[in-house]
Specification:
single chain; alpha+beta; Thrombin, subunit H; five-stranded antiparallel beta sheet; two-stranded antiparallel sheet; 6 helices; 7 strands; 47% helix; globular
Amino acid sequence: MKIGDRIVYPMHGAGEISGIEENEVGGVVSSYYILQLPLGNLKLMLPVDKVEEMGLRDVIGKDELKEVEKILGGDAEESKGSWNKRFHANVDRMKTGDILEVAAIIRNLVRQNEKKKISSGEHRLLEQAKQIMISELVYALEKTPEEVSEWVDEKLKAHVEKNSDGENVEG
């Protein structure tokens, strides 16, 4: 990794490496990547020697972008168990750092909320998942966070459900 690389940090989102600094912690000097996130003007310091175990990865390309779009517009997975079990399962999925998992979480929670209001904990998780996705798509789509947010909402609204006659209706 080098300055200028755009990477994804699971549970935080995507950012650009803006520098490398050395800091002393507990008498040990270590090197840190400075990751500048596009949302919230947040800066993170990531230890260079722990990059592998942190699950950092490159921002998605055009092929993965098509898959994200397909997932957002698709049918929700059947929800199982209480909201608490779903919540913890979704957190575990988000920790993987896989954009497709994050897209599925967003889609599932939005569809669930359309049927029956989701819990406040799930609503916070939905907002966090959207922020993580938006931060990465800012780079993948080369758009502003506002434009990406609109793009995500459009893809979610493009969902087509079958009515009782088997006809497609916007859902």
